[in-house]
């Protein structure tokens, strides 16, 4: 069971909201969907969910094409829309019972208990949805999306409106859900994507500008080596300048040098530390932050 998205497009009036994008999601994966406002994330998720038809391209799930409003697709897809429209006058448990019946679930009470426990909605289950805080309404939306144990879970900004504690809890829930579902979720919170996802898709102006494992996206993009000494080194500038190093900066305990090809910069630095009786506390290659990468990809 995999999701294959192939060359999909969607145009609103004269604007290309989604412009020929392709990617795949496989079982066990949690894929983060990033992009600035208006990039086309929600439009893409709607097309995958089968509630908006692409102008061109194909979406297949489990080797079958996802047709608009197809019952077969809805059986295996769970979708939390961006707006999270809920029936505000229903009680939480009542709403889940209704959805359980819509999905023809076999053991509705047991399944409802499971999702209520998982999303820690126990103390809210007898309240009306409209009486819940935004964060708890978001939890109800997630509970509704996972009730039928979908093979593919699409979450459009699942953590919007959550406080920092709830954010951590929902991240854990998402990780837990990935045991049974492939997950594609959009977010503006970059840290969240690093904390939860295996892979990231980045959209910009309707196009897919990155599709990479999180580790390779974050892999060192600069070739500067940072060496942190236990001792101050500012007064050793003259000694350092005599070494065969391309120095970027010297500041108190920190030395930054360029790593030139064919030159063992680390060895030179370590020999210098030995000669001067200095201790190296940390030595690492500069890593670009996700914010920097995001900026780079979407500007
Ligand atoms: N129903 C619609 N009619 C016309 N234009 C639309 C419609 N829905 C979306 N758009 C436009 O398509 C583009 C992509 O919108 P979309 O909602 O997919 O972006 P997004 O990446 O989800 O943004 P955000 O991060 O703000 O949620 C935007 O420019 C938006 O104005
Ligand atoms: Mg959106």
Describe the structure.
The chain is an alpha/beta fold and 299 residues long. It folds into two domains: 216 residues, P-loop containing nucleotide triphosphate hydrolases (Rossmann fold, 3-Layer(aba) Sandwich); 67 residues, 2-Layer Sandwich (Alpha-Beta Plaits). It has a six-stranded mixed sheet, sandwiched between helices. A four-stranded antiparallel sheet has the order 2-1-4-5, covered by helices on one side. It has a four-stranded antiparallel sheet with strand order 12-13-11-14. A hairpin with a 2-residue loop joins strand 9 and strand 10. The longest helix has 14 residues. The chain binds adenosine-5'-triphosphate (ATP) and magnesium ion. Magnesium ion binds next to helix 1.
The string of secondary-structure elements, in order, is: EEEHEEHEHHHEHEHEEHEHEEHEH
Mean pLDDT: 91
Please give the number of β-strands: 14
Gross geometry? elongated
CATH topology of the largest domain: Rossmann fold
* Lateral arrangement of strands in the main beta sheet: 6-7-8-3-9-10
Quote the distance from N terminus to C terminus: 35 Å
Helix content: 25-40%
Short description:
This protein is of the alpha/beta class and 299 residues long. 34% of the residues lie in helices and 28% in strands.
What topology does this entry show?
Blueprint: E1 3-12, E2 15-25, E3 30-34, H1 41-49, E4 56-61, E5 64-65, H2 71-76, E6 77-80, H3 92-102, H4 108-118, H5 134-146, E7 152-156, H6 164-177, E8 182-186, H7 190-196, E9 199-204, E10 207-213, H8 214-218, E11 224-229, H9 237-242, E12 246-251, E13 254-258, H10 265-276, E14 280-285, H11 290-297
Parallel strand pairs: 3-8, 3-9, 6-7, 7-8
Antiparallel strand pairs: 1-2, 1-4, 4-5, 9-10, 11-13, 11-14, 12-13
Helix pairs in contact: 3-4
Bound molecules: adenosine-5'-triphosphate and magnesium ion (MG).
């Amino acid at each position: 069971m995999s999701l294959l998205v192939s060359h999909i497009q969607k145009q609103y009036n004269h604007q290309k909201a989604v412009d020929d994008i392709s990617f795949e999601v496989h079982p066990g994966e949690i894929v983060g969907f990033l992009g600035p406002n208006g990039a086309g994330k929600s439009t893409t998720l709607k097309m995958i969910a089968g509630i908006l038809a692409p102008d061109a391209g194909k979406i297949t799930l489990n080797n079958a094409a996802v047709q608009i409003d197809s019952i077969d697709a809805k059986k295996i897809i769970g979708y939390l829309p961006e707006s999270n429209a809920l029936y505000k006058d229903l009680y939480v448990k009542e709403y889940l019972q209704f959805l359980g019946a819509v999905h023809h679930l076999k053991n509705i009470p047991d399944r409802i208990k499971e999702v209520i426990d998982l999303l820690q909605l126990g103390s809210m289950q007898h309240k009306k949805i409209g009486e819940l805080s935004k964060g708890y309404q978001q939890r109800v939306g997630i509970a509704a999306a996972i009730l039928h144990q979908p093979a593919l879970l699409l979450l459009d900004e699942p953590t919007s409106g959550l406080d920092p504690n709830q954010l951590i809890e929902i991240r854990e829930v998402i990780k837990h859900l990935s045991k049974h579902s492939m997950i594609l979720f959009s977010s503006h919170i970059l840290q969240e994507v690093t904390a939860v996802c295996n892979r990231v898709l980045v959209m910009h102006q309707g196009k897919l500008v990155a599709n990479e494992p999180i580790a390779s996206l974050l892999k060192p993009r600069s070739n500067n080596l940072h060496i942190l000494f236990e001792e101050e080194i500012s007064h050793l500038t003259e000694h350092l300048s005599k070494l065969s190093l391309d120095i970027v900066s010297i500041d108190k305990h920190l030395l930054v040098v360029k790593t030139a090809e064919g030159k063992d910069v680390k060895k030179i630095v370590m020999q210098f530390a030995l000669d001067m009786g200095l201790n190296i506390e940390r030595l690492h290659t500069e890593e670009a932050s996700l914010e920097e990468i995001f900026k780079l990809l979407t500007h």
